[in-house]
Design a protein that fits this description.
five-stranded mixed β-sheet, single chain, 28% helix, alpha/beta, three-stranded parallel β-sheet
Length: 275
C-alpha cells in the first residue's frame, strides 16, 4: 500500500511539473536566445496548443469559415465531413489578446499554423513561454540572397514559321513560351483564366499601371512586409517589385501582339511576402 501511494504521489508531482514547465524554444530561437541583448527584438512564431474555448469543429459549419468557392472546390475531392478541418478554425481571440499584452508588437495571427507572429525581447520570450496555452516558440527564419540582375528587354520574337495562322490570339514574342506548354491550343478552345482565382506571392509589384495589366481583375492585395494594402514597394527604385511584375505579367498579362499570359482574365490576389 505504501509503495502504491508513493507511486501515485510521484506520478502526480510529475504531471504538475509537466503542466507548469515552460514552452520549449525552437532550434533557431534557442541559439539566438543565448546571445540576445535585453533591448534587442526578434521576430518569432508563437505556436499554440489548441484553438481555445471555441476551437471545437462541431461549433461551426463550413459556411462560417470557408468561402463558397473554396467549399465547391474542396467538395470535388473531399468527403462532406472533411470539407473543412480544425486548421480552418480561427486562432482564439483570448490567446491573441494575452500574447499582445506581452510582446512589443503583434504581427499576424495564422490560423492554419495555429500561431501568432510577433516582435519580442528576451524577457518577453520568457513571459510567453510561461503561458499555459503556448506550445513552442520559434524564430522566423531569414535568408539572404544575391538579387538577380535586371533582365534586358528582349526584342526578338518567334520565327515566322513558328506562328500558326490557326491560333485565335496574337501572342507576339510570347508565342514561344506559351507554345512550349501548348497554351495556344487551350486558348483556341476558349479556355482562359476566367473563373479561376490565382494567388501570387512575390517581392512586390511595382508597375501595376502598365498596359499589360489593364484587363487584369485584382480582387485583393496586401503587403505583409511593410503592413499596408498596396503591394507597390515603398522604394521600388532599388529593384523591389520587379520580379513580381515579371512573374505576374508572364502568368496573366494581356497585350495583343506583345504578351499574353496563359491565365489572362483570371481573378488575382497579390501578396508582397519578401523583401
Amino acid at each position: 500500500m505504501r509503495t502504491l501511494t508513493l507511486f501515485l504521489l510521484s506520478l502526480s508531482l510529475g504531471s504538475f511539473a509537466y503542466a507548469d514547465s515552460p514552452a520549449r524554444l525552437g532550434k533557431l530561437l534557442s541559439k539566438k536566445y543565448l546571445t540576445m541583448r535585453e533591448s534587442e527584438t526578434a521576430v518569432v512564431l508563437v505556436y499554440l496548443k489548441d484553438k481555445g474555448a471555441r476551437g471545437k469543429k462541431e461549433l461551426y459549419s463550413a459556411a462560417d469559415l470557408v468561402a463558397p468557392k473554396s467549399i465547391a472546390r474542396r467538395a470535388r475531392v473531399r468527403k462532406e465531413a472533411e470539407i473543412f478541418t480544425e486548421q480552418d478554425l480561427p486562432v482564439d481571440r483570448s490567446y491573441i489578446a494575452a500574447i499582445s499584452g506581452i510582446v512589443t508588437r503583434t504581427r499576424h495571427a495564422l490560423k492554419w499554423f495555429n500561431a501568432v507572429s510577433a516582435e519580442v525581447t528576451k524577457s518577453q520570450i520568457d513571459a510567453l513561454s510561461r503561458l499555459p496555452f503556448v506550445d513552442n516558440i520559434e524564430l522566423v527564419g531569414r535568408w539572404r540572397g544575391t538579387p538577380e540582375p535586371e533582365q534586358p528587354d528582349l526584342k526578338t520574337g518567334p520565327a515566322p514559321d513558328e506562328l500558326s495562322a490557326a491560333n485565335l490570339l496574337d501572342y507576339g514574342a510570347s508565342f514561344i513560351q506559351n507554345n512550349q506548354i501548348d497554351v495556344p491550343q487551350v486558348h483556341d478552345l476558349g479556355i482562359f483564366g476566367a473563373g479561376v482565382t490565382v494567388g501570387v506571392f512575390d517581392n512586390g509589384f511595382r508597375l501595376l499601371t502598365h498596359e499589360s495589366f489593364d484587363s487584369m481583375n485584382i480582387i485583393a492585395q496586401y503587403d505583409f512586409v511593410d503592413h499596408k494594402v498596396s503591394v507597390v514597394p515603398n522604394n521600388p527604385s532599388v529593384g523591389f517589385g520587379s520580379h513580381g511584375v515579371n512573374t505576374l505579367s508572364t502568368i496573366g498579362g494581356y497585350r495583343s501582339g506583345q504578351l499574353i499570359g496563359p491565365a489572362f482574365r483570371a481573378d488575382y490576389i497579390l501578396a508582397r511576402t519578401e523583401n
